[in-house]
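Extended Data, panel c. Modelled sequence:
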Amino acid sequence: MSLLAPKEVTILRLRRHPLVFLKEISIFLFLMIVPLLVVFLLNTTHVRLPNNGVVPVLVILGGSIYYLYLALFIFYNFFVFFLDRWVVTNKHIINIEQHTMFHRTISKQELERVQDVTAEMNGLMQTLFNYGNVSIQTAGEQERFLFHDVPAPNFVANTILRLVDQTRKKEV
């Protein structure tokens, strides 16, 4: 099933900026180092765990479960990051948001209904790496579309405004 109508052309395909994904998983990357730090501290303080056969197995099992959970959280965050996307065509704006693993929302709005487009970059990171939010005010059922952390938000907003103007000129 295609979301595009006949003679509809894709103008922009957007995803969140990759730096946002790195920011989201940075805590998990840090947590991957924690067991190595614990082993290092145990070795430098000369603390010895009992070596009766059960303790090493439990340590390996616990470490394996720990790293599997971390890998699961990283995969989950990547899954949601990768499936969040926005598509701008010559007729519509399509907002595809993956909320959880099995919860996705797809919203589609005609360009004719767009009333206002705002680009917003907050903070040093967004300004340096040129990403931010694009807010689209519409006259439709979903009053506001929000493109989260997209690259070049000013370019995206200007492109949408240009497409809206072209659509309105064709109507007249």
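The CA atoms of residues 29 and 114 lie 41 Å apart. This feature is highlighted in the accompanying rendering.
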